[in-house]
Amino acid sequence: MTIMSKAERTRNFIIEKTAPIFNRKGFAGTSLFDMTEATGLTKGSIYGNFTNKDEVALEVFKFNVSKMQAMFDAEINSKTTAKGKLLAYADFYDKSSMAIFPNGGCPIMNTAIEADDTHAELKESSLRALLMWKSSLEKIVVDGISNGEFRNSTNPEEAALGILAMIEGGVMISKLSGKINYMKSIMTTLRYYIESL
């Protein structure tokens, strides 16, 4: 068991308490007041543990993505087939509301949209997270081709991109419209797509 120093515990506390705010309000919308309010700490305590707001935001993004990944892993790791693992994504988004995500929705999409033209480091972090997700989907598809679940002609990269596009597009449409049934409809389409591989 690793014992954390007081400074590490404080950093983790700041990350955990500000994570929902950054994910909901974004980098530009999250103020120092929001951070002190959420943590109960002073400005000096926050900036005594982080160089600046950028560093907090980057750590918070990693935290939110790891939280989302842990939810996916719990669903996927319970499946024994490649098709089952891909369908687990559709089931996950179908049965859950957007509220179960790190407060505010998908951190990859939220951060990518906000940081696109405004924050190079956050944009790079969101791109890395998206590419890792794409890579994990590709691996599942490759495994499915190898064990005969998917056609040999299936292109793993195209399949992964299609799955990502339906998931992230569904999240955006559902969140923007406030209509969960839109997400359910898109997840039905995703199931058909996975079955067609």
UniProtKB/TrEMBL annotation:
InterPro entries tied to this protein: Homeodomain-like_sf, HTH_TetR, Tet_transcr_reg_TetR-rel_C_sf, TetR_C
Coiled-coil segments on the chain, per record: none
Keywords: DNA-binding, Transcription, Transcription regulation
Domain of life: Bacteria
Domain HTH tetR-type: 8-68
Gene3D superfamilies: Tetracycline Repressor, domain 2
The name this protein goes by in its record: Transcriptional regulator, TetR family
DNA-binding region: 31-50
Phylogenetic placement of the source organism: Bacteria, Pseudomonadati, Bacteroidota, Flavobacteriia, Flavobacteriales
GO molecular function, a single term: DNA binding
